[in-house]
Design brief:
153 residues; mainly alpha; flat; 2 strands
Length: 153
C-alpha cells in the first residue's frame, strides 16, 4: 500500500512567539482524535488567538504594569496556563447558556452541555496558578533590579 503525502503550508506567523497556538492545543489535548464526543477541535484558531491577547493583557496588570507580548513573555508554561484558563472560562459560559437535561420514563437523566461547573472549576484552578506564577515572576524581576533607577519592562 503506497503512502501518499499531502503538502502542508508552514506558517511563520508564530515564529518568534514564546508559545504558539499549537503548543496550547497540545497542552489542552485539543485535537479531533482526542475529542471523541466532538470529533473536532474544541477551540478555533481565532478563539486561541483571542485567549493569548487576554492572558497577556491580564499578566500585564498583575502586581505591576508591564508590556509583555507574545514574543517576550517571561515564561512559556505560565502563558499556557493563562491561555487555557481563558478558554475554559469562555467555554463555561457557553455550557451554562446551552445547558439542558432530559429524562424519559425510568431512564437516567441525560444532559446536553452540562459541564459548566467543571469548566469553571478548571478555569479557576488554571487562573490561580497563572496569577501566582505571574506575581512570583514580577517579584523576582523587581528583586533583580534592586538599586537600579528604572523599573523593569
Amino acid at each position: 500500500m503506497p503512502v501518499q503525502a499531502t503538502p502542508v503550508e508552514v506558517s511563520n506567523s508564530y515564529q518568534n512567539w514564546v508559545v504558539t497556538p499549537d503548543d496550547v492545543r497540545m497542552f489542552m489535548r485539543d485535537y479531533p482524535n482526542m475529542n471523541i464526543l466532538l470529533a473536532d477541535r474544541e477551540f478555533s484558531d481565532e478563539e486561541i488567538l483571542r485567549a493569548f491577547k487576554m492572558a497577556i493583557s491580564q499578566a500585564n496588570i498583575i502586581a505591576r504594569p508591564t508590556d509583555y507580548t507574545e514574543t517576550n513573555f517571561p515564561n512559556a508554561y505560565t502563558l499556557q496556563l493563562g491561555v487555557a484558563a481563558y478558554l475554559m472560562r469562555t467555554e463555561s459560559f457557553r455550557q451554562l447558556r446551552n445547558q439542558a437535561q432530559f429524562q424519559d420514563g425510568n431512564i437516567q437523566p441525560v444532559g446536553i452541555d452540562t459541564k459548566h461547573a467543571e469548566y469553571l472549576q478548571h478555569s479557576s484552578q488554571l487562573s490561580q496558578e497563572f496569577q501566582q506564577n505571574m506575581t512570583l515572576i514580577k517579584v523576582n524581576e523587581n528583586m533583580n533590579t534592586f538599586g537600579m533607577f528604572r523599573s523593569p519592562n
